[in-house]
Design brief:
This protein is an alpha/beta fold and 219 residues long. Helices cover 30% and strands 16% of the residues. The strands form two sheets. It has a six-stranded mixed beta sheet with strand order 3-8-7-4-6-5, sandwiched between helices. The protein has a two-stranded antiparallel sheet with strand order 1-2. It is globular, with a radius of gyration of 16 Å.
Length: 219
């Protein structure tokens, strides 16, 4: 049976695909039940919701353990898994299931975002975004990073997600300075009108958490 594919309105991106098992059919997690993690994920197109800036909080923790509607994965362009947050999410979600779902999405360009089911995570969805590699700030890194946060919330709105957890995108091996990256994240998230009501910034270390708190408390 041909796979069922749901498309994003923005940039014509494939939204979500669920692999059940070898030799069996793929199903859209939006239009049919998803049981990869034991939960019924049946959902229709979400009804219109009031748009406003989300409530933003920050804490230190493991993003794979977040109990939110969607967690954001700091992915590579091939959506093939890797180290850091990307590797941790693949392992926690179920590497085989997530790898198959990502393969169906194809590549994801820097600044863009695509979604898959959360599989074994607490979160219903994983929103994969590709941050910029830091080259000193002269190659449009700030605009690409801002686009990552904005696109993730656009995808979350299309999925009907109300709560989203973000890692510190691009601050690992991609080398984006933590202070500058946090400023882009907070500024972008505060400026967006979205149906998402809660955004959690999940820091891996105390330094990043301290930067988030300073920015959020400074209004």
């Amino acid at each position: 049976m041909a796979p069922l594919i749901v498309w994003h309105r923005c940039n014509y991106n494939t939204v979500i695909l669920t692999h059940r098992s070898a030799g069996r059919k793929w199903e859209s997690a939006i239009s049919r039940p998803e049981r990869a993690n034991g939960r019924d994920m049946t959902a229709s197109a979400p009804p219109p919701r009031p748009l406003s800036a989300p409530r933003i909080s920050a804490h230190r923790g493991d993003i794979t353990a977040e109990t939110v509607d969607a967690v954001v994965n700091a992915a590579n362009a091939a959506l093939a898994g890797g180290g850091g947050v990307d590797g941790a999410i693949h392992r926690a979600a179920g590497a085989d299931d997530l790898r198959h779902a990502c393969a169906r999405l194809g590549r994801c360009e820097p600044g863009d975002a695509k979604a898959t089911p959360g599989f074994a995570l607490h979160a219903r969805w994983i929103i994969h975004t590709v941050g910029p590699v830091w080259h000193g700030g002269s190659r449009g890194e700030e605009a690409l990073l801002a686009s990552c946060y904005a696109r993730c919330l656009e995808v979350a709105d299309e999925l009907g997600a109300r709560s989203v957890a973000f890692p510190a995108i691009s601050t690992g091996v991609y080398g984006y300075p933590r202070q500058a990256a946090a400023e882009v994240a907070v500024r972008t998230l505060r400026a967006i009108s979205t149906g998402v009501t809660e955004v959690r910034l999940v820091a891996f270390d105390e330094e990043t958490l301290s930067i988030y708190h300073q920015l959020l408390e400074g209004n």
